[in-house]
């Protein structure tokens, strides 16, 4: 008997077929990629924001790594994926919205009342975005981060997901993390942080 795709995987693939430029991958992130993302969190990280929750592969891994439901905030732009995440993680704040609006959305939800996030993890397809959109999303994420917080992003291309010009404009340094072959397609993790911490 032919194995059936997991419901989350089918939901994700259907959304990719509808809008391949907005949904960055054809399949959800693998457990190996999720582990590589989590390995880049600060050792003391307890408050995390996830951009582009998708079907929840990285969300699940964050919770399994000890991030509490109330200390995790997930943002998803796609309505069907947002609904899927709300059902799968009923105790996690899952917001529907644009990543450029993250600071106001996080404030309205009450998340930032508990302090800034220690890290932002992102599954957004930054590499395919125009530079001004990249800049607005990254800037919004750093508004929600503590001074020495990190922005962890994966990408499928050979180049860094954030344009060098954008990183310079926002005074960010970049470090290349793990290359994850066991992902469809293979992915590389990148970590962004502020050049100088006050």
Automatic annotation (TrEMBL):
This is Uncharacterized protein. InterPro entries: SAM-dependent_MTases_sf (IPR029063). It comes from the Bacteria. It comes from Lysobacter enzymogenes.
């Amino acid at each position: 008997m032919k194995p059936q795709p997991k419901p989350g995987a089918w939901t994700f693939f259907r959304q990719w077929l509808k809008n391949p430029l907005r949904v960055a991958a054809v399949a959800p992130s693998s457990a190996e990629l999720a582990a590589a993302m989590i390995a880049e969190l600060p050792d003391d990280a307890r408050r995390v924001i996830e951009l582009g929750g998708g079907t929840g592969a990285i969300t699940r891994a964050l919770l399994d790594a000890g991030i509490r439901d109330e200390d995790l905030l997930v943002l998803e732009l796609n309505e069907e994926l947002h609904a899927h995440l709300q059902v799968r993680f009923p105790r996690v704040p899952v917001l529907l919205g644009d990543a450029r609006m993250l600071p106001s959305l996080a404030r309205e939800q009450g998340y930032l009342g508990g302090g800034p996030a220690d890290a932002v993890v992102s599954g957004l397809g930054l590499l395919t975005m125009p530079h001004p959109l990249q800049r607005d999303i990254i800037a919004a994420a750093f508004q929600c981060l503590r001074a020495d917080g990190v922005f962890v992003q994966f990408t499928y291309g050979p180049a860094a997901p954030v344009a060098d010009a954008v990183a310079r404009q926002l005074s960010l340094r970049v470090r290349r993390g793990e290359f994850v072959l066991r992902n469809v397609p293979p992915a590389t993790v990148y970590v962004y942080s502020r050049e100088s911490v006050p």
